[in-house]
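Example 3.
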Amino acid sequence: MKGQGQFAAWIVGLAALIVLPFVYRDPYHLHILVLVLIWSFAYTSWSMMGRFGLVSLGHGGFMGIGAYVTALLWNHVGLSPWIGIPISMVAAGALALIVGYPCFRFRITGHYFVLVTLALSGIVLQVITATRDWTGGSLGYTPNRASSNKWLALQFDDKTTWYLIALGIWLAGIVIWHWVDRSMSRYALEAISEDEDAAAAAGVDVTAEKLKITLISALMTALAGAIYCQYQMFITPDTVSGISVSLQMVFAAIVGGLYVSLGPTIGAIITILLAETLRIGFGTKAVGWDNLVYGLLLVLFIIFLPKGILGSVLDRLKPQRKVSPSS
Amino acid sequence: MLEVSGLVKRFGGFTAVNSVSFKVDQGEILGLIGPNGSGKSTIFNMLSGTLAPTAGSIMFAGSEIGGLAPHRIINGGIGRTFQIPRPFRRLTIFENVALAGFYGQGRHSRAKAEESAERALAMVGLPTDRHASVDGLGAAGLKKLELAKALATGPKLLLADESLGGLDEAEMDQAADMLRRIRDDLGITIIWVEHIMGVLMRVVDRVMVLDHGEKISEGLPSAVASDPRVIEVYLGTDAETTQAAAAEARRRAGG
């Protein structure tokens, strides 16, 4: 009964989200919604690993690769994003495996894993900035406007199309989250996050399980970067890569709730509303303030609300829900 | 079924296990005893793949398993428990055991894994209720869970590491009976490492005694219990033997 009710709620919610852009057409609000959906997907991607204690600060790197590889292939080789995006995802996935394998094989965990991945984000940012003849460096990069076939170039002028694309990708992220959540891999990864030796003694191939979730997470993050680039039609190293983007993912996922599927989405709503409020309220005077607020809130959340906003709210509701069916 | 020969493990300059050889036959319960630091757990860790041997060979069911990754050894038919129970607290009791049933048996199907989890839980006497939390278990319950996890991996050989530590007398007897039932009913061969000799001696078919990483005695429980070398290193508590042991330790450290 409860499962059916939940399923019905999802269907109704989803139907409302699909209908929304046809009823409500304010372009600024739709723009904010598209951003929320794309970033929600990115944060969900990060949380795939983060929820199992694999705290990566390298995801800015994967996102940057997704965005830049797709755009570079389009501008320099004329390769459609339909092919460019999968290539960029493969590139990010390969990098994730190259960095992940030695880490997992030699048991680099906890803080040390964070440091290795931190270096990864820094390196990707440096590479983008240093190859400025190709990437435009810190001034940013714009994919060439397609003259004819908009579909082939994955460039659309109307917000409604982008809203629907972003909604589809966001939904795919949520579905993948639930798919992992219901799989035996979740048991294995929870076990690994607690005690690697005991997990191995239960027959789990610890390195392989960690690599699998890292790969899934990196592929999704690269896709988020590519979609963000196609939507904004302008990227800079700082907005799609680097440590600050990685930190933003950590912040949003933890604040929203790491252990519930919609947690990162709540996190995206909060981060984007915060950034927009600061931008509109204080303009250029407030550049960088959002990072300061993130840092402060992150500390407060880790101490006082480790399950995040949505996780804590659901916990509150749980005891009341359990009373009737169990007796 | 298991044949260990010339097994050596060194940690830097310290030799934890020094050229130990032994055999375990199908359907046997072998007791492994020895004072603290005698190398029992190190041998266990090599048999289960947690540590790689420095030298020597471990033949299990006709193939060499020394130095293989733990998950390969577990999938090959050796199950183990840990001296101090290591449950996964973020999973339910059932999920703990189902995990072992799934990954310990070649990841076949979830239904099969849950079936073996139910069997293992019933065998050790834990509830098969899917939502029971690990936090509700006491010392005895955690030991049972540890055993259920090992059983769910479908072992032919079970390595039981000091499974009675921290239990009261009645619980100890129960646990000892359970190991015997696991052998009798499921046909699983067992190597049992234990500090508490009394209970162990009643259940095992054969005993092997270790001291300072070397095998000093092996045989039937009655014969081993009256072996003077065993009495000296393991049971000897009077001043004379203690001093001798201390002198021996100094000699070894110096050499």
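The interface with chain B takes residues 184, 187-188, 190-191, 193-195, 197-206 of chain A (CB under 8 Å). DSSP finds 16 helices and no strands in chain A.
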